[in-house]
Each structure stands twice: as C-alpha cells, then as structure tokens.
Amino acid sequence: MSRRNMGRHPARARGFSLLELLVAFAIMAMSLGVLYRATGSSVRAVGDLDLRQQATSVAESTLSRVDGVPAAGVAESGSVGEIAWSLQSQPFDSGGGDNPQAPKLHEVQVAVRWVERGEPKELVLQTLRPERGPRKPGA
Q1: Residue 135: inside a domain, yes or no?
Q2: Could you tell me the end-to-end alpha-carbon distance of the chain, in angstroms, rounded to an integer?
Q3: Rounded CA separation 119/91 (Å)
Q4: What average pLDDT values come out for the chain (139 residues) when binned by 10 residues?
Q5: d(CA 54, CA 13)
Q6: Spatial CA neighbour of 64 closest among 80, 83, 45, 87
Q7: Could you give the dihedral angle defined by the CA atoms of residues 41, 46, 51 and 52, in that order, rounded to the nearest 10 degrees?
Q8: Residue 72 and residue 131 in contact, taking contact as beta carbons nearer than 8 Å
Q9: How far, in Å, CA of 59 to CA of 37, rounded?
C-alpha cells in the first residue's frame, strides 16, 4: 500500500470505531444480565427446595411419633425454626358397623406451614392410626 492511499482513510486502518465498541459493550451487558438472572433464580430455587425438604422432614417425623391415638384424640402444635406444625386427630368411621372386632381408627393429620419468598406455603399429610386403649400402670 502506498503512502498516498493511507492518507485518505486513516480511520479504517486504525481499528474499531466508537459505535462498534458501544454495540459490543451493549451486547456483552445484555448477555451478562441474562446469565445473572439465570444463576440468581437457580440459587433461589435451591434455597426454596431446602426449606421444602425441611418442612417435609418435620411433617414426616411428627406423624411418625404417633403410633396409636388415645380415645380422646390428639391435638398438638409447635415450631421448628421458621416452620410451624400442628397435629390433630379425629375418629374415623371404618364402616365396621357393630362389629366389636373391627379396630377403632383415627384420622391423623399434620399440617406444616412456612413462608417462602413472602408467600405462605402449607404441606398437609394424613394417615390412619389405631386407637389405643388406656395405658396400664407400669407399661
């Protein structure tokens, strides 16, 4: 290339224009914003999942403590950290009629409540447990 040709278009020979750099930075900023949102939502989802697993564990362990229900029923409540739970029972009609050998059953329900990102959440587990007779002294 001769010196004469370089003198006519010096801007083209030097590199990128300011407009090209601004467009490149804008594309990079949008890409980083999308990446930030994707990783941020993943981190929040992991935190939410951890809280749900804790709530499920509380519900299952509370329910597993009840192996038999007294005739009067059960009504308890409490909390573990930011997770509140309540346990209730009521007699269940098993359709045994007047059969004296049919076991008396209670429907046992545990409800677990917590707040996840400002919204109240609830998990309810239900099962049937046999009614236990009065406890004998020394048992």
Answers
A1: no
A2: 106
A3: 33
A4: 54 73 91 82 75 90 89 92 93 74 88 91 93 65
A5: 64
A6: 87
A7: 90
A8: no
A9: 33
- The amino acid at residue 93 is D
- The amino acid occupying position 133 is G
- Looking at the domain assignment, is residue 138 inside a domain? no
Closest to 125 measured CA to CA, from 51, 45, 65: 65
> What pLDDT sits at residue 42?
73
Q: Which two three-digit tokens encode residue 23? A: 């467009």
Q: Is there a domain that residue 41 lies in?
A: yes
Instruction: Decide: 132 and 66 in contact? Cβ < 8 Å.
Output: no
CB neighbourhood size of 117 (10 A): 9
Strand 75-80 and strand 119-130: pairing? unpaired
SS3 of 80, please? strand
Nearest CA among 119, 51, 43, 44 for reference residue 80: 51
| Count of structural domains within the chain | 1
Domain with 114, as residue range(s), is 3-96+104-130
SS3 content of the chain, % helix, strand, coil (to 5): 40, 30, 30
Cα separation, 84 vs 122, in Å, equals 10
Q: Is residue 136, in this structure, part of any structural domain at all?
A: no
